[in-house]
Give the backbone structure.
Amino acid sequence: MASINSVLGPIDSSELGFTLMHEHVMISASGLSRHYPALLGPNKETRAIASLKRAKAAGIQSMLDATTFDLGRDPELLKEVSEGSGVNLINVTGWWLDVPRFLQGVGANQMADEFVKDIQEGFRGTNIKAGMLKCAADFEGVTRPLETMARAVARAHLQTGVPIMVHSYPTGHVARRQIEIFREEGVDLGQVKIDHCNDTTDTEYLEWILDQGCFLGLDRYPGRFVSPHMRTVTLKKLMDLGYTERLCPSHDCICLHIHNELPDGSIPEEHVFQKSNPDQFLFIHRHVIPDLKALGATDRDLEILFVDNPRRLFESGS
Ligand SMILES: [Zn+2]
C-alpha cells in the first residue's frame, strides 16, 4: 500500500480501482485558464464534470491528469471537477515540451526543488499536491532544456519516491535517450512509465523498453496514424509476450480545450478533438475492451491492466 496525493488529499493505492493513467481534464497554456478563461468556452467546469460523471458511471474510478504547468495546469479546477464527478484525480508536476526561454538557464537542481515543493507542500497558493512526475521529449529528441527538465524530474523522484511518467516519441526511439538519462541519475526504471507507446506498432522497440524494467503507457485511443484496432493488436501482442503486468492503456483524452475561431469568424461549440472522439473517456470501454476480449483477453487480464498495474506503479517507490 502507498499513499497517493489526489487533488482532494491523500488516498491509499488500494482505493484507486479502475484507473486511466494518462488523461487531461484541460489543456491550454500556463496561466491561461485564470487570465483568459473565455478562450476555453463557456461553462467549462460544468462540461468537465458532466464528462467525468459519465466516466464514473461506467466504472472509471480514478484518472491521472497529465497536465503540467506549461500545459495550463489549474489545480483548483481539477479539485472542483473531482468533487463534482466523484472521480479521483491525481495531478502531475514536472514539465511537458514548452520550456520558455527565460527558464532555459535554470538548473536541474533548482527545478527539482520546485517539483519537490509541488509534491510535499502543494502547488503554490493551494494545498493541492502533485501525485506523479512527468517529463517530455518529442520528434526533436531530448533537447537541452528538456534534458534539464528530465534530470530535475529524476532528482525530484529520488527525493520523494513519486513515480515518473514520460511523454515520448516512439517513432524516433526517443525513449532510448530518456532511459539513458534516468540511468545516469540513478532512477529505478521500475518506477518509470514511458508513454504514447501505441503510436507505433514496432513491438521490437517496445519490448526493448519493457526489458529495461519500465511500465509502458499505451495511452492514445483513438489516436492518429495508427488505427485503434492496430493499437489493440499491439497491446495484445505484448500481453502474449508476457508483459501484461507492465502495460497501462489510456486515452490521452482532452476534455476542455481552447476553441479556435474559424476562417468565417465563428467559434464552434464543439472542439475538433471532441469530434474526433465523441466517446471521450469511454472509448476504451466501448471499443477497446470488446476488441481486446475478441482477441482473447480475459476479465482477469483487464483487471491487471486497469486496476493492478496503476496501483503497482504508485506502490513501486514505497
Ligand atoms: Zn497527454
About this structure: The mean pLDDT is 96. The longest strand covers residues 19-26. The pocket of zinc ion is lined by residues 22, 24, 66, 252 (CB under 6 Å). The radius of gyration is 18 Å.
